[in-house]
Amino acid sequence: MLKAFIFDIDGVLVDSEYQNYISLRDSLKEVLGIDFTFEEDIELGPIPTYKKIEYIKRNRSISIDKKQFDLLMRRKFELLIANFDRSKTNQEAQKIFQFLKTKDVKLALVSNARSQYIQFIIDLLGINGLVDIFVSNDQHLKPKPSPEMYNFAMLKLEVEPKETLIFEDSDIGLEAAYESKAKVFEVRSFSQLTLELIERLYAEDSY
């Protein structure tokens, strides 16, 4: 019997890849006066923002001090929140989490994003109080594709990998999920997760 469902966020519960790019692009232009293309962002993939900034430093051969870095991160978040497209969210997320809670399933979110962003998404989806824990990239754990964040989540939830189903979409996220030895559902679109699908996955436990 499945005892825990763990969800990635971007690409699974929300579709914010382009919005994240726009907020990073605009904050880089505002704070540092440099350009950052969508092609570069796609090539880097869904890694933490600080790793993208490290790439930019190397690629542009520039230095970024702590004050600039902190301002950059703050402005990126402000721009993302201010322009977040709420139509790009899973409209059934609240019903999904409520259903799983009636089954005493433990619920977690695991993302390479920062905790501030994860809390924003939790509030936006209306699942505050339904999520047992979330794991972010500012908890001093190795980010995906390492399985460490998923392993940590299962440890905190007190469940075994065989009792856990992870929902992931990206290549690095799937690598992390499979290496954690948990059961994995490969998400192809954030709109794919419906209450009907979740009810069936819980009932069948066919992984």
User: Low-confidence stretches at least 5 residues in length (pLDDT < 50)?
Assistant: none
Specify Rg, calculated over alpha carbons.
Answer: 17 Å
Residue fraction in strands: 5-15%
Mean pLDDT: 94
Q: Report the total helices.
A: 9
Q: What is the helix/strand order?
A: EHHHHHEHEHEHEH
Sheet of most strands: 5 strands, parallel
Overall morphology: globular
**Got a strand count?**
5
Q: Please, what is the oligomeric state?
A: single chain
**Largest sheet, spatial ordering of strands:** 3-2-1-4-5
Q: How helix-rich are the residues, as a percent range?
A: 40-55%
Content-based structural category: alpha/beta
Alpha carbon gap, first and last residue = 10 Å
Output the keywords.
alpha/beta, five-stranded parallel β-sheet, 9 helices
What does this entry look like structurally?
The longest helix has 17 residues, at 66-82. The chain has a 5-stranded parallel β-sheet with strand order 3-2-1-4-5, sandwiched between helices. The protein is α/β, with parallel strands linked by helices. The chain contains 9 helices and 5 strands. 49% of the residues lie in helices and 10% in strands. The model has no long low-confidence stretch (mean pLDDT 94). The chain has helices spanning 17-32, 38-44, 49-60, 66-82, 93-102, 115-125, 148-157, 171-179, 195-204, and strands at residues 4-7, 106-110, 133-135, 164-168, 183-186. The chain is globular and about 55 Å long. Helix 1 (17-32) packs across helix 4 and helix 5 (93-102) packs parallel to helix 9 (195-204).
